[in-house]
Amino acid sequence: ELKDNTIVIVLGASGDLAKKKTYPALFGLYRQGFLPRDVKIVGYARTKMDEAEYYKRITSYIKVPEEEEAAAQLEEFKKLSTYVAGDYEDGAAFDNLNKHLEEIESHYQSKECNRLFYLALPPSVFIPVAKNLKEHCYVSKGGINRIIVEKPFGKDLESARELLGSLKQYWSEDETFRIDHYLGKEMVKNMLVLRFANVALGAAWDKNSISNVQITFKEPFGTEGRGGYFDEFGIIRDVLQNHLLQVLCILAMERPVSFSAEDIRDEKVKVLRAIPPIEQSDTLLGQYVAANGKPGYLDDDTVPHNSVCPTFAATTLWIHNPRWEGVPFILKAGKALNEAKVEVRIQFKDVTQGIFKDISRNELVLRIQPSEAVYLKLNTKTPGLYTRAIPTEMDLTYKRRFSDTKIPEAYEALILDALKGDHSNFVRHDELDHAWKIFTPILHWIEGKSGQRPRPVNYPYGSRGPKELDPFITKYGYKRSTEG
Ligand code: BG6
């Protein structure tokens, strides 16, 4: 339920995340009427700027829809927004922020005031900001305080535990909303419905019917300008350990007792606990090199010239439980590939031979982006006076089926959930802990903690990935369709 009299405070308001994601999502919610009554938005960051400059920054990524009223709504949205400049480590600066918040709240009718703090900040200031907010900006007179935080949550198990432990001193689990924005994506949210509201799919959802599962993330651009951050983290921490692993959990979990946040997250944690740490032999690492007129990873000035940081990784996870024993879950992600695409591909087993030969396997594809779609590859008799089966597709493309519906942005969905206090699509502390247990050994190996750093194989900018990828997937039983 939404609380009236809420202030959303965006810390890091002049940064990239805030201008690209947070403010556009807040505006999207505002114009669709989803923000609480009397909402106000306060930006906070170090940069000193006047209102005009602040408005310019926060609206620079907002695409004003064509509808007539949208431009007017943007003006209204600006009027709700104010800005306070201040340091992240300085208690007095947060007192100043608090004064500003109290001034706004003094105009509210009711005494209850609620504050949602959104930390769009680099990890180096997470802790001082969390502490200062608690000590200087926490409403204690009957309102609700919530804090939204974003990855990176540490670099490995140990550092994540340290970070979470420090944050816990100031903010309880109930007040904390850890974003993994993949959980806000429409198709990811659809997965629970597809699985548990369809007998036909549910019945085939296990090792008896499924041969292998691939969860794929492809981006057509490199680290352009973000090389400094990226080189420290690599593709595994950037995408696999969080976004793709969360998708895996939802695909693999047992049916939750209810849709409550704890019931859902309990089931996800059980999946994570059944996955052992990733083996080196189940991992393929790549790095892009210059091609098609585009620079290689090492040509990026912000990247050390001899970096062996992977910009591509494929790795296979195994879930040791009765439903999934022996079914490989292949996660793969890469930068600077041939296309932008995120999808899940569930490949079913071979049909019994005999009356059929060389027949393709069924595949269920859940396309997360772009252009959300669910399609099932089915073998069908070609129409005609003979019997020949060919692979065809049962296709549910959202643009066609739900043509009048606007698909919400992930950040819109998640900010709305946080405003309502619904944790279902946020990452619980123990999920994070288990996620790090699975990935920490392989990350330490890649970083040379146990000897020489492994060298990733090369792949050309704009290609499908390393040439080693096809044999890698085949090794885990994936079979290409014979046709179609
Ligand atoms: C972020 C990663 O978490 O997700 C980026 O840090 C990546 O490197 C991005 O580009 C992808 O998000 P989306 O929503 O564009 O798929």
UniProtKB/TrEMBL annotation:
Q: Which reaction does it catalyse?
A: D-glucose 6-phosphate + NADP(+) = 6-phospho-D-glucono-1,5-lactone + NADPH + H(+)
| This protein's name | Glucose-6-phosphate 1-dehydrogenase
UniProt xrefs under InterPro entries: G6P_DH, G6P_DH_AS, G6P_DH_C, G6P_DH_NAD-bd, NAD(P)-bd_dom_sf
Q: Residues in domain Glucose-6-phosphate dehydrogenase C-terminal?
A: 192-478
How far does the signal peptide extend, from start to end residue? Answer: none
This enzyme's EC code(s): 1.1.1.49
In terms of NCBIfam families, this protein maps to:
zwf (TIGR00871)
**What positions does the domain Glucose-6-phosphate dehydrogenase NAD-binding occupy?**
9-190
Going by the UniProt record, its keywords in alphabetical order are: Carbohydrate metabolism, Glucose metabolism, NADP, Oxidoreductase
Organism the protein comes from:
Hohenbuehelia grisea
Q: What is the lineage of its organism?
A: Eukaryota, Fungi, Dikarya, Basidiomycota, Agaricomycotina
Q: What does this chain do?
A: Catalyzes the rate-limiting step of the oxidative pentose-phosphate pathway, which represents a route for the dissimilation of carbohydrates besides glycolysis.
Q: Does the keyword Oxidoreductase apply?
A: yes
